[in-house]
């Protein structure tokens, strides 16, 4: 059983957030890149925005992973629920986690939990229907 099949990918974003937030607290809002769009509007990408974008991509991969109905995916869903719970507690009690960026990461963890259970329930229902010849 591969660890990537069990460990929620959102864990990587949460760990990256805290690696940045705990070492250089102002770096989450730090600008990585800035340029002017053809419309003339300035566009900047902060570290926090990059983490959210990576989190959205990993959320997509997590939803793809949840379509499997194996024991590894059940463990993954349980760990995703635990990750969301930890994020919720950290958001409430830890000053470094009380930011808009971490809130969005936490919401992605919640969506991972809800989508994971929903998609696997639908996939397992399909497996049962096919197995019964319906």
Note down, in words, how this protein is organized:
- This protein has 134 residues and is mainly α.
- It has one domain.
- The protein is built from 5 helices and 2 strands.
- The protein has a two-stranded antiparallel ribbon with strand order 1-2.
- A hairpin with a 5-residue loop joins strand 1 and strand 2.
- Helix 2 runs antiparallel to helix 3 and helix 4 runs antiparallel to helix 5.
- The radius of gyration is 18 Å and the shape is globular.
- The two termini are 32 Å apart.
- The model has no long low-confidence stretch (mean pLDDT 89).
Shape label: globular
Q: What's the N-to-C terminus distance?
A: 32 Å
Strand content: 5-15%
Give the SSE order as H and E letters. HHEEHHH
The strand line-up of the biggest sheet is 1-2
> What does the largest sheet look like?
2 strands, antiparallel
Annotation field: number of helices: 5
Mean pLDDT: 89
**Structural class by SSE content:** mainly alpha
**Total discrete domains:** 1
Query: pLDDT below 50 for ≥5 consecutive residues: which ranges?
Result: none
Helix content: 55-70%
Number of strands: 2
Radius of gyration: 18 Å
Give the oligomer, counting copies of the same chain as homo and different chains as hetero: single chain
């Amino acid at each position: 059983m591969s660890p990537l099949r069990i460990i929620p990918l959102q864990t990587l974003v949460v760990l990256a957030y805290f690696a940045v937030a705990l070492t250089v607290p102002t770096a989450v809002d730090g600008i990585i890149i800035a340029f002017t769009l053809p419309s003339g509007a300035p566009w900047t990408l902060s570290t926090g925005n990059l983490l959210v974008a990576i989190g959205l991509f990993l959320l997509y991969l997590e939803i793809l992973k949840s379509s499997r109905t194996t024991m590894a995916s059940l463990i993954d869903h349980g760990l995703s629920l635990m990750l969301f719970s930890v994020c919720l507690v950290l958001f409430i009690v830890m000053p470094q986690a009380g930011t808009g960026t971490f809130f969005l990461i936490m919401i992605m963890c919640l969506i991972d939990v809800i989508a994971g259970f929903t998609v696997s329930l639908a996939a397992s229902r399909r497996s049962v229907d096919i197995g019964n010849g319906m």
